[in-house]
What we know:
Keywords: Cytoplasm
Strand order of the largest sheet: 1-5-4-3
Order of helices and strands: HEEEEEHEHHHHHHHHHH
Strand content: 5-15%
Number of helices: 12
Family: Belongs to the RecX family.
Pfam families: RecX_HTH1, RecX_HTH2, RecX_HTH3
Structural class: alpha+beta
Shape: rod-shaped
Domain RecX first three-helical: 85-124
Largest sheet: 4 strands, mixed
Organism: Paenibacillus medicaginis
Amino acid sequence: MKHEPMEEKHTIQQGIEHFPGDEELEITRVEQGKRGMRGRYIIHFGPYSLSVLEDVMIKYRMTKGSFFNKSELSDIVMADERQQAYVMSLQYLARKPRTRQELSRRLLERELEPAVVEETLARLEKERLVDDELYARQWARQRVSGRGKGKLWIRQELQQKGVDRSIIAYALGDISEAEEWESALQAGQKKWDQTRGEASEKKRKTYSFLMRRGYSSELTRRVLQSLLRRDQTGPKAEEDELLWD
């Protein structure tokens, strides 16, 4: 009668915490992870097993017949978690740029060790794959020029993304008054023209609209004054007046 391999007779104990600490353990079988474990391999040591990424398995030469003790395997598990955190980060960043805090939150949600997360973030910053200063500058310019948002709105957004206040101040300082004025004027003009009713109603709704979009009260008042003059004198006269400003 054919006997099954020893590891098949016992319930497989998964995870390094189940491994005995006082003996050398031989790899009895290596198998590719099933669906949901892409890029991972299950390493069997008789009745014990653990899962590692393929490149970690190759790096530590985890082939059938090799021996490891629990201390060595603990180091391998940590190396695997570091590599796992790095791969997760690259996948997350591939969709769009992220701030340091956004990435940190994502990795911690995956129940990675805080020390591993910090080490991963430091590596990504060194490789310039995470750069809060560049992110803040690009975000601020895109929001002003492409989305019709004011600096107050942008400051709040970047704070929520965990960007340092000094970096936010630097990014907003990179946006000129003329750029924010043009952004506010375009947004205000669109809202003004879409609003029906008397000038007072247009003024009220446009004022609220621009304030909600993060433009300062002073800038908003200037936009309303410009729009009122345009309605009173006509578009051509307004254009001529702006050329002399």
